[in-house]
Amino acid sequence: MTVQRIVQGLTLTLFLLALVCSPHPLLLLWPADGFLRMDPIVGLGILVADRALTPLVWIAGLILLLSVVLGRFFCAYLCPMGASIDLTDHLLRAQRESRTRRPVKDQRGHTKPLYIPARRFKYKVLFFILGAAILGVSFVFIASPLSLITRFYGLIIYPVCAFLADVGLTALRPVADRMDLTTMAYAVVKVPRYDLQWVTLITLLLIFAGGLWAPRFWCRCLCPSGAVLAIFGSHAIMRRQVSPDCTQCGLCARICPMQAVGSGSEAIGATDAYFTNHAECIACQACVRECPTRAISFAYGPKSCQGRSDRLPQKICVGRRQILGAGLSGAVAAIITLTGLKSPHSDPGPGSIIHPAVIRPPGAVPEQGFLARCVRCGECIQACPTNSLQPLGLAAGLSAVFSPVVTPRRGPCDPGCNACGNVCPTGALPALSIEEKLKAKLGTAYIFRQKCLAWELQKKCLICDEVCPFDAIEFRMLPGNPIAVPFVNENKCAGCGYCEHYCPVRAIPAIVVEPMQALRLAGGSYRAAARERGYSLELGPKIGFRPSVDSGPQKMVPALLDENGLPPGFTE
Question: 441-528 domain in CATH 3.40.1650.10?
Answer without folding.
Answer: no
